């Protein structure tokens, strides 16, 4: 009888420990956040000046320990404790986007306001045409059900550093910045290029869009690495399109052409669709 009592006590104690750990586990995972950017730095303290202890990937979950201002103390993979910026994570799970109707896309018409951008031979400003192209792409994306956010809607000045923040704040799935090239000597260069800074998803996005830019009257210069702030300091897949050389007469005639504008816009939309299908 004594032996049975001892066994019963041992079983109850074991079950109590199991239940306690299970409840702790559930409580821990119930208070979690999900990484909403491609790569998230987990730092040793609540500021960007602290060293990076680990890097979490898009969609991974982090268990919350506490919060301090705009920073969250988390546990990563059951072993690493550190701090992450609250604006780079979200509550709950992130659904993978596989089609345009599920996507949030940020379009960035380059320059604007006091920043005219490059000039054509007759003094036309780059900022005018970046907005035209971005508006066309926005219209076509919305027609396919995508959510589109513009970094500017009119001829206004938007600081460079604020443009990537629009993508992060809105948990966007892609960011495209529109520009036009300019050569040191007029009429010496031609063609369009898709730039990326980060290898991985940004490079894949650049390739997907560039591959759809076919049958255009200008030379396709392919994809290339570009050290541009709006794509370098971007936490989501981001590319920059140089749609032709504004100070090359032939290119500028195309840039002004509604046929070219619409064809480029159609190709960008098709490239985004292809990217989301295979991403």
TrEMBL record:
Residues 30-93 form the SH3b domain. GO terms for cellular component: outer membrane-bounded periplasmic space. The keyword ATP-binding does not apply. Keywords: Cell wall biogenesis/degradation, Hydrolase, Membrane, Transmembrane, Transmembrane helix. GO terms for molecular function: N-acetylmuramoyl-L-alanine amidase activity. GO terms for biological process: cell wall organization; peptidoglycan catabolic process. The chain crosses the membrane at residues 9-30. The keyword Cell wall biogenesis/degradation applies. This is N-acetylmuramoyl-L-alanine amidase. It comes from Lentilactobacillus farraginis DSM 18382 = JCM 14108.
């Amino acid at each position: 009888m004594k032996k049975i009592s001892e066994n019963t006590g041992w079983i109850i104690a074991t079950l109590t420990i199991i239940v306690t750990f299970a409840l702790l586990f559930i409580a821990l995972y119930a208070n979690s956040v999900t990484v909403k950017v491609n790569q998230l730095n987990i730092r040793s303290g609540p500021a960007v000046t602290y060293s990076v202890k680990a890097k979490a990937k898009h969609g991974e979950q982090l268990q919350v320990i506490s919060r301090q201002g705009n920073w969250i103390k988390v546990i990563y993979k059951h072993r690493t404790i550190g701090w992450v910026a609250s604006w780079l994570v979200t509550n709950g799970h992130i659904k993978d986007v596989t089609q345009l109707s599920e996507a949030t896309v940020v379009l960035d018409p380059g320059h604007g306001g006091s920043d005219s951008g490059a000039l054509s031979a007759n003094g036309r400003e780059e900022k005018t045409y970046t907005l035209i192209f971005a508006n066309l792409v926005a219209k076509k994306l919305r027609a396919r059900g995508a959510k589109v956010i513009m970094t500017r809607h009119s001829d206004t000045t938007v600081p460079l550093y604020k443009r990537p923040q629009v993508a992060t704040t809105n948990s966007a799935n892609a960011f495209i910045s529109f520009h036009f090239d300019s050569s040191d000597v007029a009429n010496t260069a031609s063609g369009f290029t898709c730039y990326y800074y980060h290898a991985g998803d940004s490079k894949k996005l650049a390739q997907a869009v560039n591959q759809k830019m076919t049958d255009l009257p200008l030379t396709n210069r392919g994809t290339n690495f570009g050290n541009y702030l709006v794509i370098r300091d971007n936490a989501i897949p981001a590319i920059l399109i140089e749609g032709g050389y504004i100070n090359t007469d032939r290119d500028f005639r195309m840039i002004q052409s509604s046929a070219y504008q619409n064809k480029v816009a159609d190709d960008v939309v098709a490239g985004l669709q292809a990217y989301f299908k295979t991403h």
